[in-house]
Design a protein that fits this description.
Elements: E1 3-8, H1 12-24, E2 27-32, H2 36-45, E3 50-51, H3 55-61, E4 64-67, H4 71-81, E5 91-94, H5 100-109, E6 115-121, E7 142-146, H6 153-162, E8 169-172, H7 175-206, H8 209-213, H9 216-222, H10 229-238, H11 240-262, H12 266-281, E9 296-299, H13 307-317, E10 324-327, E11 338-341, H14 345-357, E12 362-363
Parallel strand pairs: 1-2, 1-4, 2-3, 4-5, 5-6, 7-8
Antiparallel strand pairs: 6-7, 9-11, 9-12, 10-11
Helix pairs in contact: 4-5, 7-11
This protein binds nicotinamide-adenine-dinucleotide (NAD) and prephenic acid.
The site of nicotinamide-adenine-dinucleotide (NAD) has 29 residues, from α1, α4, β6 and α10.
Domain Prephenate/arogenate dehydrogenase: 3-291
Keywords: Amino-acid biosynthesis, Aromatic amino acid biosynthesis, NAD, Oxidoreductase, Tyrosine biosynthesis
GO molecular function: NAD+ binding; prephenate dehydrogenase (NAD+) activity; prephenate dehydrogenase (NADP+) activity
Length: 366
């Protein structure tokens, strides 16, 4: 019999999951979203098969329910679902960036025997909405699952089968440990990115050139400050203690840096940067996960008219598709002024070979 998947909150993550499930399963996928616009768009883009008029209507018939709203709403939705007379075999999951509060709400509200498994794909974007949904978003990323008293090993296996199309690496983790790690590698960096933007924003009131001069370094470290403010407000409030601890730790680090600067301690400053570089360089580059790889290739091209079309034609002649092209405004630490993005490592390798034959130096950023 045809299975039914119901997604609540059809934005970037809900939409991307719908696309991955569609690929691997013959299931009807329906969704509910408070935004009718999102539902209309999702239907037009073929992301879902049908829109539901309410949470109750979709939850009643679903085999798999995915809650993909901001975390504050997820907790309210769990309370709504608790009153729905759904299929006894249904699996309910969420995709929220914080886990402890959500797991506690499921435990407090869902009736005995209802299956709930927490989820968090460690991949995303600063973009929101179903228009940004992408079936490859989770490829090679970690997908954290937090099983609970409300789930069995067999149900966890079924859920993993539903999620095979993500091509993500499933890992199981306790909610508190998840929140500690995600707090350090995702939540706190968003706080710092926004604070850095605030610092430059204040500076540009007096020095308007600051905004225009902002180059690769500032752009790289602050890309995530363009994310949804509502989503990040909720994440901060749902991982508040970890954030408070991280702020304390950060203040202590800043105090140490201040001392190094006051004392002009060149050796200590060198060690500070060298230690950071060593750890950062050791992060995996080929797989997604803590830091996603985008299959980018930097090409050092001479400065003459028509050079970009020469490069793109060369790749097109070899049947290699480019998913994105950017002319770098500054060279920074990367040689090459053209950044080409590809869909896969295989395409990037082919492009590297093709451009190498034509004597264009190419570089892969690590
Ligand atoms: N964006 C990321 O990088 C990322 C990555 C992993 C996990 N997450 C988590 O995934 C969840 C969704 O994030 P997103 O990036 O897809 O956000 P999004 O803004 O793209 O989508 C959220 C959707 O939920 C809908 N919504 C809000 N309240 C609702 C309600 N009460 N009922 C039904 N629909 C409602 C919104 O209209 C929107 O369409 C969040 O909990 C977030 O923490 C985000
Ligand atoms: O790439 C981005 O824009 C993200 O912010 C993705 C990111 C992250 O911090 O790494 C954001 C939130 C998530 O819960 C998981 C992934």
């Amino acid at each position: 019999m045809n299975k039914h998947v119901f997604i609540i909150g059809l934005g970037l993550i809900g939409g991307s999951l719908a696309l991955t499930i569609k690929e691997g399963h013959r299931a009807t996928i329906s969704a509910f979203d408070v935004s009718e616009e999102q539902l209309k768009l999702a239907l037009a883009l073929g992301v879902i098969d049908m829109a539901e008029p309410s949470i109750e209507a979709g939850a009643k018939k679903a085999d798999l329910i995915i809650i993909a709203t901001p975390v504050k709403q997820t907790k309210q939705i769990l309370q709504t679902i608790a009153h729905v007379d759904g299929k006894p075999s249904a699996i309910i999951m969420d995709v929220g960036s914080t886990k402890s509060d959500v797991m506690q709400t499921a435990e407090d509200w869902l009736p005995e025997g209802t299956c709930f498994i927490g989820g968090h794909p460690m991949a995303g974007s600063h973009k929101s909405g179903v228009e940004a949904a992408n079936k490859r978003l989770f490829e090679n990323a970690f997908f954290v699952l937090t099983p609970s008293k409300r789930s069995t090993a067999a149900q966890l296996t079924i859920l993993k089968q539903w999620l095979t199309g993500t091509r993500a690496t499933m890992i199981e983790m306790d909610a508190d440990e998840h929140d500690k790690i995600a707090g350090a590698i995702s939540h706190f960096p968003h706080l710092i990115a926004a604070a850095l933007v605030g610092q430059v924003s204040d500076l540009s009131a007096e020095h308007p050139l600051a905004m225009r001069m902002a180059a690769g370094g500032f752009r790289d470290i602050t890309r995530i400050a363009s994310s949804s403010p509502a989503m990040w407000r909720d994440i901060m409030l749902h991982n508040r203690q970890e954030m408070l601890d991280a702020v304390d730790d950060w203040q202590e680090r800043m105090r140490q840096i201040k001392t190094m600067l006051e004392n002009a301690s060149d050796e200590e400053l060198f060690t500070f940067f060298a230690d950071a570089k060593e750890f950062r360089d050791a992060l995996p580059v080929k797989t997604k996960g803590a830091i996603p790889s985008f299959y980018d290739l930097y090409v050092d091209v001479p400065d003459y008219p028509g050079v970009i079309s020469e490069v793109t034609k060369m790749l097109a002649d070899q049947g290699i598709s480019i998913t994105n092209l950017r002319i770098m405004e500054t060279r920074e630490d990367i040689l090459g002024v053209l950044r080409l993005s590809f869909r896969s490592e295989k395409d990037r390798k082919k492009a590297e070979e093709c451009l190498g034959v034509a004597s264009y130096p190419t570089y892969v950023a690590t």
